[in-house]
Write a structure and sequence with these properties.
It contains 9 helices and 12 strands. The protein has a 5-stranded mixed beta sheet with strand order 3-2-1-4-7, sandwiched between helices. Strands 10-9-8-11-12 form a 5-stranded mixed beta sheet, sandwiched between helices. The protein has a two-stranded antiparallel ribbon with strand order 5-6. A hairpin with a 3-residue loop joins strand 8 and strand 9.
Amino acid sequence: MTARHPHAPVIGLDLGGTKIAAALVAADGTVLDRHSLPTPATEGAEAVLDALAEAARAVRAPGTTALGVAAAGVIDPATGTVTSATDTIRGWAGTALAAGLAARTGLPVACDNDVRAAAATELAAPHGGGDGRGGAPHGEGTTLIYAAVGTGVGGAVAAAGRMLHGAAGIAGHLGHLPSPEADGLPCTCGATGHLEAIAAGPGITAHYTRMSGVPADRLETVAARAAGGEPHATAAIVLGAEAVGRALGGLANTLGADRVVVGGGVPRIGPLYTEALAAAFAAELMPPLRELRPVPPRGGPDAAVLGAAALPRTLPLHHPHTTGALR
């Protein structure tokens, strides 16, 4: 569909646990219109699909040819389904995301995980030289590791400039790497000892409470106490950062990465977090990668919605009133 209309606008939807962002995006990446609304995360999958369709209608213009949605959870672009998810969005696992949205909007739909869509914008941007980014121009040949550390730990991996999806769309879920720092701690996926349990915002907050015996309602509270010199708060943040750094360093060795990006809300704590992560990352690197350093994302707040708008040009399209994916 979009291949026959390469200059037509496309709708991009970014679905998170708290907010849906919609944008009408021109072929050159210009955002023509925006809309956002709260995610009805506790009301079930049908309510979320209805809200996505509402957001799409708010920005739709004549000539719009397709819709891309970047969503939380493990998303399989080939089937258009949510193959796995936490309870951040109630009943989200198993949702026929593409088919449900195509039926509601009458547009062909492509879908992917939200972090993977944001990471794809890193491949599209030129980079290199002097800032630890490395890589080939415009992502050609780039081996990218992208981590998003926030309420959870999401991620994406690209090899030779191509985003990896893996079986059932699960590739890149870095939060579920085994982590010695999280040994015995329950993970949101139901297992124990995964990186997310010690390194995500709630994991850092819970670890602070375990060490100090003092409750904290959220990561920002822990960060404020660390800024005030509270040793348990500092230790919890540093441990979470080091756990991410070690995991990413090991992956960089395994994949031969030439670009490692770390985004999400947790790194906004500032130098206490980012410096601990960078030091732990560097300590893991084999000699050929010693100059590699993690860097922040280039895409800014629009990365996920712009990545979503690009999906219909690269992934299977799911059409209204049909089953399966068409190209």
